[in-house]
Fold this sequence. Notes:
By secondary structure, the chain is mainly α. It has a single domain (2-98), classed as Arc Repressor Mutant, subunit A (Orthogonal Bundle). The protein is built from seven helices and two strands. A two-stranded antiparallel ribbon has the order 1-2. Strand 1 (57-62) and strand 2 form a beta hairpin.
Amino acid sequence: MRDFIKIMKALSDQNRVVILKLLQQRELCVCELRELLGLAQSTVSKHLKILEGARLIDYSKDGQWVNYRLADSEDNPYAAALLENLKQWLDNDQRVAEAASRLPFVDRSTLCGR
């Protein structure tokens, strides 16, 4: 039950759901997510920490960047089911669609250097 509740709490915030929808398309760093969401970097980092704690996302380091991606949730059936269903949900939501439409124009090499 604890894993299920943690996942549900993680999904109870609109920004975290948008992050998951963006990560369905590609790996992103904090700077890219900050730009797409229009939030402070510290706020984005807090959201990422909650998603990571719920085992919905993973990260890897690549030089100066930390790349976030959807987790491989084989060991967590609740996360796997919700991430799979989320692929079919909310694509037409205005906030998700707006963020996704800007995704091709977000370039970490210019953003993270600012």
